[in-house]
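Re: weekly structure request thread

Next one in the queue (153 aa):
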Amino acid sequence: MPNAPRSRYRFNQKWIDALKAPDPDGKQKVYFDDTDRGFGVQVSGTSRSKVYIVQRDICGKTHRRTVGSCEELQLARAREIARDMIAAMRSGADPKKRKITDEIAEKIEEMTLDQAFRDYIKLKEARKGGLCGPDEVRRSRRQHSQSLAGDFV
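Done, posted below.
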């Protein structure tokens, strides 16, 4: 197809800066780099947003992650970040999930058993019409205080 639109482009800073956002046809567009596979620029169809992205298949499903804004990152720096993200994705890791997991791990390291229990009770009390009634919450609190006192059997 000689008239088919190109799917890959040779990125340089001048070309990135010249991309129009919002795209004139009102649709989101994604342009991929012909040098770094999986690295691209996503241009909004409705706002002035242009972002660097990475896209890879993880376990048979396509995942697209944002590297950063084209206004905030120069192309060279965006490529470095994208290469790291793509390397992680190749090994089967999802950068978004890894970031969330790292944040949760930090919180867990600082958490005491008592704090974990209090968070658990808050979740149980917050359930509307759920399986947890006031009697269950009272019973859980009693068991927790006994276990902390060393009387739990």
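The mean pLDDT is 78. The chain has five helices and five strands.
Next request, please.
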